[in-house]
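QA checklist item 7 of 12: single-chain prediction sanity check.
[x] sequence parsed
[x] length recorded as 456
[x] structure emitted
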Amino acid sequence: MKRFLLLFILTSLTFTVFSGNNNFSRWSITAEYGYNYFIGDINQDLLDIFPTSIRDITYGGTIECALTPVWGLALDGYYFPLRAINNSPCPIRINTDLVTSDFNTTINFTRWIFPQTKSKFYVNGSIGIGFSRYIFDLRYIDNTVVPANATYVDYKYDGQTRFIHRYENGTPMTYGIAASIPVTLSLEYNFSKPFALGLKAHYRAYINDDLEGATCLSNDGVTNDYIGAGTLFLRYKFNSIKKHHLRDIIWDEYEPDKALELAQKLEKKYDDLANRVDTLEKKVDNIMPRLENLEKILSNDGPDSDGDGVPDVRDMSPETPVNTPVDFWGKPIVIPQPKGRALGLNELPDETPAVYFGFDQIDLDNDALVTIRKIAMKMQTDPTLYVEVRGYCDYMGNNPYNNLLSQRRSDRVKAELVNVWGIPFDHIISNGKGKIIEPRTKYRPNRRCDFFFGRL
C-alpha cells in the first residue's frame, strides 16, 4: 500500500511539474485503423501469403503527453479480433475478441539522434505494460460450435485424450484476462502544425498462452501468445496552432537548464512526501488497535449474558437481575427517595410518574400530556432541578432500531417540556436506553419514559 501510494504521488507530481510550463503544447491524440496477425499455439499452412489470422479490422488510439522533445507518456486502447484456423491435430477455427489498454513510455528517435533537425518526418517508438480482456468462441471447420466437453486425441506427442476448452473449477471458460507488454515503432509525417499522418508496427506479448481459448492445440507453439499488427494513424496535437508542440521544436528551444531545476524540485518534494507517509503509517499502526477496542466498547452488538441490553465486552455487572435499569456500563441504577431511602432495583419513586407510548409510536396521548404537565410544574416550582428523561422500548424489534426509537421518545418528551412549558433546554437530558428484555412480547408498561431528578 505504501509503495503504491508513493508511486501515485510521484506520477501525479511528474505530470504536474512537466505540464506546468505553458510555453509549449504537450498533448496529442491518435486514431488508428489496421490489421493484426495472431501468433499462438496453432498450426497454419506455411505457404499462405495471407494467413487466416488476418481477417477483421483492428482499431484503437492513444493519448500522449510529451514531457520533453524526446520523451513522453501515453495511454493506449485497442481492439484486436484474432481469427485463425488450426489445421492439426484438431481442426478448429479460432475466434477471439481482445481488448487491451497499456501505459507506455514514448521516444522520438529522430529528435534523440538529431536534436537540432527540423525535418517533418519522425521515427517514434514506445514500450509499456498493460492489461487485456478477451472473449473466445471456438468452432469446428464447418462453423459449428465446439461443445464444452469436446476432446481430441493427440497422437503426435503422447496419444492422450485432451479437452479443448480451458476449465476453471470444473466450468468451461468463455473469457480470460492477461497482462500485456507492447512494443511499437512508427514513421510519422507532420504535414501541418496540428496534424500528422503515420504508419505503426506493433509487437505485443501476452503473459497467457491461451488466447485461442483452448489448451494443448499444438506443442509446436510458443510459450506465450503474441500479436503482430500494422495500423495507419492520424495524430492531432492539441493547442498546437497557438503554441509550438514539444515534439516539433529543436532541443535548444526546450530550456534544459530549467527542466533540470524542475526535476530537482520534484525529487525534493518526493523525499518530503516519503517521510510524511512513513510518519503517518507509524501513527496509523499505533491508533488502529485502540480504535478497534473502542469500537467494541461503543457497539451494542455481541453476547449479552444477563440480557440487560449491555454487551458483555463492557458490562461491569454481568449478573444483573431481569428488567433492572442499568447505565452505559451495565451497572444497576438505584433511584434515591427524597427521604433518603434507596429504592429497589425495579422500583420507581411514587412522585415520579412515567409517560407511556403506543406500539412503535412517539406520539403523546392525553395521559402523557397530563404527566408531562406535572413534571413541568415540579421544575417550575424548583428552578434548581435538573431532569434526565430515559426512554425505553419493549422487546419487539432489533437493538439498533429500539435504540433509535427510545431516543426519539425521550427527545419528544424533552421538546414538549421546552416548547410548551418553557423549561430551560439545558436543564433536561434526553437518553434512549433501548429495549427492556422481559417480557419478550408487546408490553405497554415497557414502552415508556422515566424521569430522574437531581441538582448540580
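[x] summary fact logged: Residues 256-298 form the longest helix (43 residues).
[ ] second reviewer sign-off
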